[in-house]
Design a protein that fits this description.
The structure is a single chain. The chain is of the alpha+beta class and 713 residues long. 20% of the residues lie in helices and 33% in strands. The strands form eight sheets. It has an eight-stranded mixed sheet, with helices on both faces. Strand 16 and strand 17 form a beta hairpin. Helix 4 (86-98) crosses helix 15 (691-708). It is globular. Residues 31-432 form the Peptidase S9A N-terminal domain. Keywords: Hydrolase, Protease, Serine protease. InterPro entries: AB_hydrolase_fold (IPR029058), Pept_S9A_N (IPR023302), Peptidase_S9_cat (IPR001375), Peptidase_S9A (IPR002470), Serine_Peptidase_S9A (IPR051543). It holds the Pfam family Peptidase_S9.
Amino acid sequence: MLPYASRQLQEISSMTKTILSQKADHLPTPPHAPQHPTLVTHHDIAVTDEYAWLRDSGYPKVETPEILDYLKAENAYYEAAMAPVADLTDTIFKELKGRVAEEDESVPSRDGDWLYQWRFAAGTQYRRWYRKSAKDDAADWHLILDEPALAEGHEYFRLGGLSISPDGRLLAYSTDTDGSERFTLKVRDLETGKTLPDHIEQTIGSPVWAADNTRLLYRIVNDNWRPYRVMAHHLGDDPAQDLLIYEEKDGGFFVHLDKTQSRQWIVIASGSHETSEVHILPADAIETPLRVIAKRESGHEYDVDHAGDRFFIRSNKNAPNFRILSAPENDPSPENWREILPKSDRDYYRAVTAFTSFLVVEQRRDGLDQIRILSHDGTRDDFITFPESTYRAELGGNAEPDPTQLRISYDSMITPATVFDYDLASGELITRKVQKIPSGYNKADYATERLMALSRDGQHIPLSIVYKKGFKDTAPGPVHLYGYGAYGMGMRPSFSTTRLSLLDRGFAFAIAHIRGGDELGRPWYEGGKKFARHNTFNDFIDAADYLVEKGYATPGGISASGGSAGGKLMGAIANQRPDLWRAIIAHVPFVDVLHTMLDDSLPLTPIEWPEWGNPKADAEVFRYIASYSPYENVRAQDYPPMMVTCGLNDPRVTYWEPAKWVARLRARKTDDNLILFKTNMGAGHGGKSGRFDALYEVAEEYSFILMAFGMAK
């Protein structure tokens, strides 16, 4: 494609102005949400909410006709607005689909006597799972789970967990067919192919087998979608009689369930966003009392693995970037913890996996992913060397307790997803698979950079940017900027086949590694949470200004996107600097922060207080959240064109948050720019579930962006 010149970036064509106007000839009148003001008062501060009625009183069921009619009207308006670019959307969808290998399969991974593999068949949206004997190269592969068959007849499908019994005979799996993330657990006999009568509702995550192959541990979610119990089910018994193993009483803690790499211990971890407590249980004696590793202490986060006769602990006690420690199996209490890797300002320890002969520490050094190998006797401390200077690398599936090779997942902004096996003896990286892109991809046609933008308070904000070669010769050009900035979830410089549809049309795509994520360690996260939340928004805006200052973009020549907490970011930057953005896309946006954090009956509110603060209990927190919450700060000003999405069954960001936000934006904004709002009526937080259905939603997003830049032809 021809580069998009600076002069063209400063004006949108008259056709595009018409398409992006809510008064366009082809559009009906935008849906109108009536205002029914509700007054909420806390700490002697009154807040009016005109659209509180959009929350169905029967939630999580949504059955109020007035609400459903409004959401359907918004969907109809969305379809009408996107109709003029239907051909473009179809073109982009074909591009996206053309980069997906219709027939694809994973690299087989060994677990005991078996090799396991998933496969996509041509035309299918979901995987099939297979296994074969690891002892016989000539053995046939056998189908053990057929996702397309399980998904048949459902608008939405998601496999939640898949766990094989220690003897390899039984498969426990869970499925969600409406996006509510409340999974149904079933068990299949892999020798007979029959599904057992055991059928357990309201579960979440992967189940864990006891060593006896007859008992299964699983988590239950309560009415507020909080995982709060671990139960043990004996095959053939009535689930109503299942044994309660653990119940978390604190509404601010979620329960997690896992098994150590050694498979000898079951791990039950309770945690909030800043505090954790781990209990352990022998896998061969689940009826014994739980043992706690370290009692919960506010602000202390830790996790545990096991090998040999020791536990290995990653702890942030007196170490913001964590330390790595070990403790004897017979008494792993904190007074017996022995330090293996000390705290560091440079090294941020993200995970530790304990194999029989060695430890693997996943960390970041100077913000760059590292995988570190340490022998238990202290004679080895190696970093795996990767072929590029900036990349994403992490452990892949490594089921064996004592492998000779490590499975690693790797990619970069210009390198497709790659599966390596790292040979522990030779140090060789063996390439097992490189992502297939059937329509073609030449890495040499693209370039990537790591930039450092200066924030208004003197911090350096990392930016990962990728573009097709030649972009800088004609810059400034169209730029798309992505961000998240919450929960310590760093956005890494990874590869995307979908992104190519923008790059090939002359865009640069940038990721702003803003505070609130953990890209530069735990302090980077702490610098964007609670009373430092404004740093997150400021960093994103400062990153955009930097791209303008350095000649990559022009003012108003940047589109932006984010989802969930990143959708909150989109709402904040739209309120604070609407002039910067050519278009904004907010997926499942968490935009009604104040009212959600005031309502402890909602699924995530209590566990979210450590991240955002509790405005119900603290007037200062109330005022601070009110100062940035996107819904509270919609004002009478011009806003850029915006696309907003949500899922009706989303338990994480409830549908009424974006619905209220869009209604208030329409009522208060002073421009005619288009605001589109689409509700997935049969899905949840992740949008549509099929691999091709999800791509079509990306194609719609890209069409909207191209409309905004006058590039919709």
